[in-house]
Amino acid sequence: MNRPLESEYAPYYQGYVAHVTEDEILPVLRSQLDALDVLLNRVAPEQETFRYAEGKWSIREVIGHLIDTERVFGYRAFSIARGEQRNLPGFDQNEYMLSAPYDRIDLEDLLSELRLVRLSNIAMLRNLNDEAWLRTGIANDSPVSVRALTFIMAGHARHHMGVLSQRYHISGAR
């Protein structure tokens, strides 16, 4: 597996792809689950609804957002790998959060759900042939390849892990 070319995704996603320096993406996707467990094990239960500023998501909501985007990107990768040529819809992360229950769900349960969704995506991706990995479709009015979607998934998670560390000041053992 090689890194996706810039022509395989919209410029908006360049920052996420840049977060992934590895060429082999499936081990990255798998290892992120353990890294999130380690990082979020440092969050005391009373801090799970902490927001670092007015109007920002809580820690629980950040993980909920990761669940939402994992589902969306995974569906896009699955659809395009199977040959879908219709434009797959975009989604407004802030609109999704308005009706999401994530702030009422324990962090441990959110992490379990994220793990299940990610492992499901990995299982699907693991069985793709070379042609499917390189297949390109349209999502949110922009061309994107299956390969690029997996790098975007991993980079998106890394981005938010950085935000959790820096903005939410998650450090030190609980």
Portion in helices: 55-70%
Secondary-structure-based class equals mainly alpha
Average pLDDT number: 96
Strand content: under 5%
- Shape from CA axes? globular
Quick one: biggest sheet?
2 strands, antiparallel
**What are the secondary-structure elements, in order, as H or E?**
HHHHHHEEH
Low-confidence stretches: none
Q: Provide the spatial order of strands within the biggest beta sheet.
A: 1-2
Q: In total, how many beta strands?
A: 2
Rg result = 16 Å
Number of helical regions: 7
What is the CA–CA distance across the termini?
38 Å
Report on this model:
It is a single chain. Helix 2 packs antiparallel against helix 5 (107-126) and helix 3 runs parallel beside helix 5. A two-stranded antiparallel ribbon has the order 1-2. It has helices at residues 14-18, 25-40, 59-81, 93-98, 107-126, 130-134, 146-166; strands at residues 136-139, 142-145. It has 174 residues and is mainly alpha-helical.
Provide a compact summary of the structure:
By secondary structure, this protein is mainly alpha-helical. The chain has helices spanning 14-18, 25-40, 59-81, 93-98, 107-126, 130-134, 146-166; strands at 136-139, 142-145.
Protein traits:
174 residues, mainly alpha, globular
Write the layout of secondary structure elements.
Elements: H1 14-18, H2 25-40, H3 59-81, H4 93-98, H5 107-126, H6 130-134, E1 136-139, E2 142-145, H7 146-166
Antiparallel strand pairs: 1-2
